[in-house]
Structures are given as structure tokens and as C-alpha cells.
TrEMBL record:
This is SnoaL-like domain-containing protein. InterPro entries: NTF2-like_dom_sf, SnoaL-like. It comes from the Bacteria. Residues 12-113 form the SnoaL-like domain. Pfam families: SnoaL_2.
């Protein structure tokens, strides 16, 4: 269990750093074949993406956006599960931000599930 948590933490931290650094190419070796992604929008359930290529394309689009700034509030991992609490800013104005969380699952050193939620 400890090794699994260490692997999951490394993968999840690398995933988050790709967004902070605007380096979508860093996501290439982090996403698993059977990945499932549930986006934060549209309300109420968010869009669902299935498969490595669909998830990778979606996440790369966000990571490559230079005006989006992700700041982590906390990264927590236990076993194959992890949580990233974050803030997303799209301008310098205080009102132009949102807080959210990604619930992640890592198997075999790859992200296989990412469920996104935001404060409404």
C-alpha cells in the first residue's frame, strides 16, 4: 500500500505541475488507456470523456492555455486514490477565479480516472 501511494503521489503531482507550467506534453506518459474523465461543466453532471486519447486531448487543451493559472491548495493521496484541491484564475481580478477539486485514481503508474468538481 505504501509503494502504491508513493507512485500515485508522484503521478498526481506531475499531472498538476503540467498545468502549472503550461506543459501539455508532460501529460503524455501519465494517462492510462482506459481513462475516464468527468469534467466540471456543463452543470449538473459535467461532460464525460472515455479513453486515453479523449482524456489526453481535453487535459492538454487546458494545460496549453497560457491565461489559466492553477494553484494547488492541497494534494492528498491514499493507496491508488488522490485529491487535488485547487484554485483556477483566468485574470488578475480577484473575482476571476474558482475553487475546485479533482478526484484521481492511478493504476499501474497511469491516471485512469479524473472526476472534477467546483464550488458553485
Amino acid at each position: 500500500m505504501i509503494i502504491e501511494s508513493e507512485t500515485a503521489r508522484k503521478v498526481i503531482e506531475r499531472f498538476h505541475r503540467a498545468f502549472q507550467a503550461h506543459r501539455p506534453e508532460d501529460l503524455d506518459d501519465l494517462i492510462g488507456e482506459g481513462c475516464v474523465l468527468e469534467n466540471t461543466t456543463p452543470a449538473p453532471d459535467g461532460a464525460r470523456y472515455e479513453g486515453r486519447e479523449a482524456c489526453l486531448a481535453f487535459w492538454k487543451g487546458i494545460a496549453s492555455s497560457p491565461n489559466l493559472v492553477f494553484e494547488d491548495e492541497e494534494i492528498w493521496v491514499s493507496g491508488d486514490r488522490g485529491i487535488i484541491r485547487w484554485q483556477l484564475r483566468w485574470s488578475e481580478r480577484e473575482a476571476d477565479r474558482i475553487r475546485g477539486v479533482n478526484i484521481m485514481r492511478v493504476l499501474g503508474g497511469k491516471i485512469v480516472e479524473g472526476l472534477g468538481y467546483v464550488k458553485g
